Amino acid sequence: MGQIKKVSVALTEELATLVKAAVEDGDYGSASEVVRDALRQWQSDRIRRQAELGMLQREWRRGITSGPSQLANIDHIKRNARSGR
Q: 21 and 11 in contact (C-beta within 8 Å)?
């Protein structure tokens, strides 16, 4: 885990109650474990969101560079969908 550094964090009463309940229920051994787990989840979510954003940006550029759009005919789209194309 590396070197431990103490940090003071202010929580709303609601969040403090949730942390306390998680420890009392035995899900975690301490409030610090709750916070560390929450931070690891946040980091994982952040990495996932950044990857999704990168994919969206690549697809956006791909769409832009593919050329001008063409108006679609809804009847043609429906016929293609019904025919399995």
A: no
